Amino acid sequence: MTISYLLTGVTGGLGAKVLNDMLHKHKIHASDIVATSRSEGSRARFESQGLHFRIADYGRLETLEAAFNDIDTLLFMSSSQRDTPARSAEHRNVIEAAKTAGVKKVWYVSLALGGYGGDSKVGFQQAHYATEDMLVQSGLDFVSLRAGIYTNAFPLALNWYPSSNFEPPVDQGSVAFTSRDELGEGIATLLAKGLGAFPSVTPQTASRIILLTGPQAETLVDIVKAIDKVRQTNTPIQILEPDAWIDACSMDDEGGKGRAWFEARLVWLQGMCNGEAELVDPALETVLGRRPETGTETIETLLTSEPDYYWHQNHVVPPKTR
Ligand SMILES: NC(=O)c1ccc[n+]([C@@H]2O[C@H](COP(=O)([O-])OP(=O)(O)OC[C@H]3O[C@@H](n4cnc5c(N)ncnc54)[C@H](OP(=O)(O)O)[C@@H]3O)[C@@H](O)[C@H]2O)c1
Predict the structure, then answer these.
(1) Which atom number of ligand 1 is nearest to the Cα of residue 16?
(2) Greater confidence, 50 or 248?
(3) In terms of domain of life, where is this protein from (predicted)?
(4) Residue 167 Cβ contacting ligand 1 at under 6 Å
(5) 229 Cα–ligand 1 center, Å
(6) Theoretical Cys-Cys bridge with 9: which of 15, 54, 120, 306, CB 3.0 to 4.6 Å?
(7) Does the CB atom of residue 147 touch ligand 1 within 6 A?
(8) What is the pLDDT of residue 236?
(9) Residue 83 Cβ contacting ligand 1 at under 6 Å
(10) CA–CA separation, 217 vs 280, rounded Å?
(11) Which residues have CB under 8 Å from 21's CB, separation 6+?
(12) What is the arithmetic mean of pLDDT over 280-307?
């Protein structure tokens, strides 16, 4: 018996929101959805909701071949792996398994650096380009959902911790920051209703890209001002040269991150400052049926409800274990 949806990434922040909305907003029956994880430990919490559960580990092709059996539509969340060749190899496994299993439709969650183009210099983006190319070659019916830069990850962009002062960004440059919850809501709606429900949202280029972004590009300085507004502080804005930014951040970093971490991060930050994430697209607004939140609006909400807001990737050593 064919099951309508298999969702990867549902133990993570974005996929959890997609699953929640598919079940509770779009009223898709739990028995029409397969939830997946690399970990058997996740089984009980999904099966207790009436969902199917299968192991899907992008690093182990055999798990994918078994998981994708009798699946109509696959939500393919990009891997958390940061090494480009390793990430591309994992994604190749997903595509091969989807093809072998005869999956009918693949929604790949990619990243919006470089807009609709293929010229981003940022390391993270390269596996996304390679994956889109593999999807084209596969002959699968797919869409690449290039997701805007999460507003929720703003502590990472600014190396911001609730308990400390922070080093302002290396430069100005605008980013169409996007709320992770609204991305999840939009993706769930696309999966549930299909592209046919949104005639103006058409995949672009051979890579079949739909760009999902917030409604306005804002600078990192705007983000600092939003933090100040909620915390009633007045952070001095200092534009640092790259080396000085690395020195300042790594000197006494609260997460224990060293120079190498900030050197790698700088490439991403410079990509953002060069405007690689500034393109605003109306697709998310169309799919949500309302204007999405700007980055500064989301940050004000996040910090008002949670003054000690924490973003896990900002910490090399989790604070609870230090
Ligand atoms: N747009 C942005 O600004 C932005 C920011 C950060 C990340 N991302 C990307 O978006 C994805 C989702 O974001 P998120 O915030 O939901 O991340 P998250 O909370 O870290 O969750 C990652 C999810 O992906 C699954 N996953 C990761 N690697 C996998 C692999 N090799 N095989 C199978 N499943 C794997 C994990 O499943 P299990 O651990 O249960 O196996 C988990 O459910 C991330 O993986 C990353 O690629 C985008």
Answers:
(1) 16
(2) 50
(3) Eukaryota
(4) no
(5) 31
(6) 15
(7) yes
(8) 81
(9) no
(10) 7
(11) 184, 185, 188, 189, 192
(12) 97
